[in-house]
Amino acid sequence: MLTKVHTGLEPVAGTWWHPAHKAEKVWVGIAFAWCLVLFAMMPLWHWKGGQNPSGIRTRVDPRAFYARTTEFVKQYKVGDDKGFPIVQPPAGADVYLTAMTYQWYPILQLQRNVTYRLHLSALDFNHGFSLYPLNVNFQIIPGYDYALEVTPTAAGDFRIICNEFCGIGHHTMVGRVIVLDESGNKVSDRNDVTLRVGGTP
Amino acid sequence: MTAAVSPIASLFRTCPYTQKKVHKDAEYLVKVNAVVSVVSLLVGAIAALLLVLTRWQAVHLLPATWYYRLLGVHGMNMLIFFIIYFEMAVLWFTSTVLLDARPVTPRLGKAMFGLMVLGSLLVEWTQFSGRADVLFTSYPPLKAHPVFYLGVILFAVGALVVVGIFFATLTVAKREKTYEGSLPLVVYGAMTAAIIAVITLLHGAMIYVPTFLWSVGLIPAVDPQTYRLFWWALGHSSQQINVAAMVAIWYMLGGLTVGAVVLNEKVSRSAFVLYILFISMASAHHLLVDPGFGPAWKIVNTSYFMYMAVLASMIHGFTVPAGMELGMRLRGYTDGLFGWLRRAPWGDPGFSATVLSVIVFGFVGGITGVTIGTEQINIIVHNTLRVPGHFHSTVVSGTATAFMGATYYLIPLVFRKKVAYWKAAQWQPYLFAGGIFLLSMGMTFAGSFGVPRRHWDISFSMSPFDVQFNPTVDLVLAVMGIGGILAVIGALIFIAIAVKSVFFGEPIGELQMGVDVPGLPRGLTKPPTFPPDVDAINERLHAPGRGIGGVTPGTLGLVTIFLMAFMVYYFTNWKLLTVLWKVG
Question: Could you give the ipTM of this predicted complex?
C-alpha cells in the first residue's frame, strides 16, 4: 500500500492517494482540535471578555467630526495644559477625540470605573491611537467614526502615542488622558510614576 | 524528424550531478532574476543597517527624513523586489529544470523581466529622491509622485505575466510528457505559490490603478479604509507566496541534503491546497482594530476560516522534519530518538539553512503570528514593534534563510560555479538566522511595552507631553540592535559569496563524487542514496505493531514541544489582555 520511497523532487507515478500513517493522522487531528480552540476563543471573548475592538462604526465627514469635537470641548472644558483644552465629560457621555497632524485634540479627563463612549476619528491622514502605558491600540482613519465603550479601570496620567506614520512630524504626536479616582481626585505623584514606568506587563 | 528535434535538443545541456536537462533560456532567466534579487537584497540590507542603528535609541543615527525615507526603501527592496525576483527564479527553475522541460515563450519572459526591472527602477528613483515618502504601505491620503504607483504597477504586471508563463510551461511539459505521473511535490508547492501570486497581484492592481489615477488627478479620492483592505490583500498575501515557496524549498533542500522522503503525498498536497483556499484571508490581520469592519468579518477572516491555513502550516511543520527523519533512518541513521538529527550534515549550508528556517519560522514567526492575529489580542499589538518582530522571523529568518540555502545549491547547479568563500558560507546561515532571531525577540519585547513601529524618536524629545518607557526597553532595543547588525553582516557575507561565485567564481570543472569538495555542497558530491532494499525497510518501519512512534519518533517529540510552547504563549497573551481598561 505504501508509495515507493521518493523525495519531493521526483515525479510520482501511479496513485498516491493512500491512507496516512497513524502518527500523521494523530498530529493532523491534534492540530485541527487546536485550530478549533483558537477559533472559539474569539467569539467566547466577545461574550465573556472585557476587551473587544467592536464599537459602533460609522462613516463621518472629517470636518463635521472635528466640528463636533470643538463643540464637545466648549461644553465640558475645565482647564488648559500647554495650549490644549482639558475636557471632563460626565459619566456616560459621548467623548470626542480628533487626531490630526501632529496632535491629539483635546486632553481628556475621565474618572475611574465610569463608562464613556469614546469617538475616535482623524481630520487628515491615518493615525494610530496607542494608549500608554497600557498599550491599547486602535487604527484611526479619516472619514470613519470608531465609537468604543471604554471604562478606565486604573487612575493616572496617560499618554496617547501616534503609532501610524502620518508625516514627517509623526514622532512628535503625543496626547494626554487623565484618569481621576472615584472621588474625583488626581492620584498621587507616586502612584502616577509607578503606573507610568512599570504599568505595562 | 531528427532535423526537427536537434535544434531544440541543442538548447539543453545535461547537469553532470543531477542528470537533469537544463534549457539555456530557462537558465538565463533563473540567472538574471537571481542576480537582480541579490542586488535588491544589498540595497535593502544597507537600509536595514541604518534603520536598526536609528531605532536603537542609544545610537539614533539617521535624521527623521532619511529614517522614514529609507524605511520605505527597505520595505520595497526586501518584501517586494528581493523576494519576488527570487520567486521568479524559483518558478523558472521548478517548471523547467525539475521537469526536464522547456520554457514556453522565453522571449516574452525576458521582456517581462525587463518590465519588472523598469518598474523597480522607477520606484527606487521616486523613493530615493524623496518623491514617495509614504512608506511601504503608501496609505492615502498620503500621496506619492504618480511614477511611484506606476512603477509598482509595471512590476506587478511583469510578475503576473511570468506567473502565466509558468502555468503554460507546466501544461506544455505535461503534454510533451517530459516526466511520468504527477508533478513532484516541490513543483506542486511552487505552483501553489504561483496561484497565490495571481490572487495577490490582481488585488495589487485593483488598488494601485485607482491610486495612480488619483495621484494624477483623474479621480477625486481613494477611500482610506478600502485602500487598506485591498492593499493588505497585496501586502500580506505577497508574504503568503513566500510561505508556499519557502515550504517548497524546505522539501527541495530536504531531498537534496539528507534524502528527505515524502511521507504521504496526500497529506502534504492537501496542506498546499488549504493554503490556496484560505491563506489570502490573512490580510484581515492588519484590519483587526480598524473602524471599517465588524467582529464577525474580523473573526472569520483573521482565522482563515477556522485556522485552516494554520492547520496547513502545522502539517508541513510535521511532514518536513518527519520526512528528513525518515530519510535519515532509511539510510541507516537509526540510533535513538535524535541520532538522525545529530548526525545530519550541519556543515552543508543548504541543510543548516533549511533547519534554521523551519525552527525560527515555526517557533517564533508562526506562534507570534497566530497569537497577534487574534482579534482581541491585536489590541495590545497593532502598530507596535511586535508586528515587525513577528514578520522578521517569518519573512527573514524563514523565507530569506531558506532562499539563501537554496542559492548555495543554485550556484553550482545553474551557474556552474563553485561557492566562493566556502568556510564563510558554512556558518553564514547560523549568523544570519541567529541575528534575525535576536532582532525579532528585541522587537517583540519592546513592542510589548508599547514601543511603536515606524517611529523615529521614542524619547519624544519634541513632543508636548513626556513619555518615559520602562528601562527594560533600552535593554531589549540593544538586543534588537545587536541582532540587526549581526543579521546585516550575515546578509552582506551572503551577497559577497553570491557575487564572487557568480561573476568571478571557479567553474565546477571535473565531476568529483564521493569526496568533500570545498565550494560544493555535500548533497551534490555525496548525494544521499538509499539502500537497494529501501522499500522493504520502509515497510517494516510502517508495520502497525510499531505503533504511533514507529516511523518518526523524534519528530513526534519535537512537535509536542512546539505545541506546548504555542499554548503557553497564546494563553499568556489573553491573560495580559485582562489588565487593560474595559473596552468594547
Answer: 0.93
